[in-house]
Structure formats: C-alpha cells, structure tokens
Description:
The chain is of the alpha/beta class. The protein contains eleven helices and 14 strands. It has helices at 8-12, 22-25, 39-57, 69-77, 88-98, 142-156, 168-176, 187-191, 195-198, 223-239, 241-245, and strands at 2-5, 28-33, 60-64, 83-85, 101-106, 110-111, 113-118, 133-136, 161-164, 182-186, 201-206, 210-211, 215-217, 252-254. Strands 1-3-2-4-13-5-14 form a seven-stranded mixed beta sheet, sandwiched between helices. Residues 8-25 have low confidence and may be disordered.
Amino acid sequence: MIKFIKSTLAFMSLGIAAGSAAYADECEIFVGVVPQFQQRHILTAWTPFLAELGDRTQCSYTLVGSANIPEFETQFKSGLFDFVYLNPYHFVVAADVEGYVPIVRSGSKMLQGVLVVRKDSGIESIVELDGREVAFPSPNALGASLLMRTELAMLHGVQVVPKYVTTHNSVYLHVFKEITLAGGGIERSLNGEKPQIGDQLKILYRTQKVNAHPIAVHPRIDPLLRDKIKKSIIDISQTMPTLTDDIPMREAVAASFEDYMTLSDLGLEQFAAD
C-alpha cells in the first residue's frame, strides 16, 4: 500500500519518533523526495514505482511530503526518512549528520545545472549577469543553484544576487515573465516545462557534470532489508524501466560513498545555507 503524508506535522501526529526503529522493523518505510518539482508531479512519478517496490520487498511505503527544499533539509537532518531521494550535496550532508547510506543512483545520467535567459533578452554572456538578480529554486539545490553559483563566482568572477523561488518551475516562470533576467535549473526540468514557457527560454551556461541524485537509506534499516531494496530497485530499472525513468533514475546501478566524495573539493560550502 502506498500512502502520502502532506507535512511533517501530519507525520508526527502518527506518534512515531523519527529516531525509533520500530516502524522499520515492521517494514513500514517512510520516504522522502527532494521537492524540486511540484507535489503533483512527484506523486505521479513515485506512486507506481513505490507500489512495485512494495510488492517486491513486502514492505509498505509512505511518501512524506515536503513543502519546500528548506523543510526537506530539516526533515532529513532529523532522520525523518527511512528512504530518501536527494541531490548529491544533500546526500553528503545527510551522511555526515545522520549516517544515511547510498544504495542506488542513475548509471547513465549525470547532474548538470543550466542557466537560462529569455531568447529575446539580448544576453549572450554570463558576464552580463554580474551584479544582477538571478532566480534559483533554493540555496542548496545542487545543479540548479549551489554548483551554478559556485562556478559563476569561482571560475568566471560573476557575482549574482540570488532570488530563491522554491521550485524549478517557479524559476522558469520568473525568467519568462522577466521578473529576473536569468534563472538556474537542470535540463530535465527545463525540458519538462510547458511549451509556452520553455520555448521562450535558452540555455546560456551549463555547469560541470556530477553523479546524479542517489537513493539513500537511514542506518536504522536492517542491512539485509537495505540490500533487498537495492537489488529490487536495480531489477525494476532493468525490467520496468519507465518506473525508474520517471523518478528520474535511468538505468539504476549500485551507489557508493565514493561516488559523491569529490563534491567536497568544489568549494560548495561557501555558498551553501545551513
């Protein structure tokens, strides 16, 4: 059975302490998903995948909603989720604070930020954005914001004024409506934008690529169950690829801590928010 809890308050009303292993022992798994897309999009993508994973692992998966990325960060830092899909920078933080263990990631797609402007803006160089306001989903959205701001400043000497607007969709809307000159996102979210908005935007700059979002589990999950979940996800990716592609996690492979340790060398911490 797949259930959905809209907020942290609803979750806590169940009387379950985030640090308790009781519900994990009963194989009821509480799932977090970084809210880079609107809630309806997340539900549409994750519900069939979690239903199939539940059948294969004989566990119940409850999707816990996050109103925005800062709330999501508070949730995983407190160990709220048993199972969480999060960006690579968030994973490094989650592993350090709560000991989350990576189990799978995309084997064919990497994460890359894109900076967009209106096609008719006349802007041809990122240098033209120096000192200007630029829309981002949140401070710690890796490709769309954190990696983007780091590269603009460290590699190109471009200092922008960030305007945080919660989601990738809001970023593109801000640029489309000319509220900001530019905005940070990722190519997948840009490609999924409504044509009347996306068709008016162009990519001005792309960041370097890093390994894509992992799925990680809290250390309270028994290692045998953790391994069963990992193997089931990889098998779903191979036999029912549309389910994992929609998450998105194309061609899922086993993930390791080493896949994400290079992030510590990029200087991201100077632009990250606590």
